[in-house]
User: Fold this.
Amino acid sequence: MNQRGFANMVLVVVIVILVGAVGYFMFVKKFEPGSQQPTPTPTQTNTAVSPTPTPQSETAQWKIFTNTEYKYRINYPPDWELGQITVKQSPAAVRFTKITKQGDKYLNDAVVDVIVEPNPLRKTPTEEWYREWVKQIPTGINLEGVKFEETTFKNMKALKIDNNTVFFAKGLNMFEIKWHVAGDYNQSLAESAEKIFEQMMATFEFID
Assistant:
């Protein structure tokens, strides 16, 4: 009985030693260098950033009027009408008009005129020139409170009057471009007409 008990005890000790050895081996193996699974490196995707689209110019779809005699062109809104006007001192005057009606009733219109006059002496548009020029107009023009600004337009000397008229000379001609509102005055229409005038001026160019 003592021998059998001693043998059982030895067996138990051997089993404990084996279990401990296997456990230690597994523990050490788990933490050996290179035994760990590598942490995956995040893949960086290079996504091209599309540039913000540039808004198309408001005047890109406008109509184009070309004057082959005086060699210029200018854009005007598609809902505006083109016509000729008679100006005594001008052999070539065109009018761009935005007509506003309510039913059959005419309300008002926004107008931009391009007038070309002979300038045989090649005079430069200045305030002094303008004051002398208006004296030749039979109806006369009251210049009290008129604002004059001597400036440039397309690298040419120009005279701007009250933010609604621009004069500039080219060769033997004097060009006058102006805007106004006819009929029942409408502040919103006037502001719109002034904006259209500025946009049309920006599109003006000589073609020679």
The chain has three helices and ten strands.
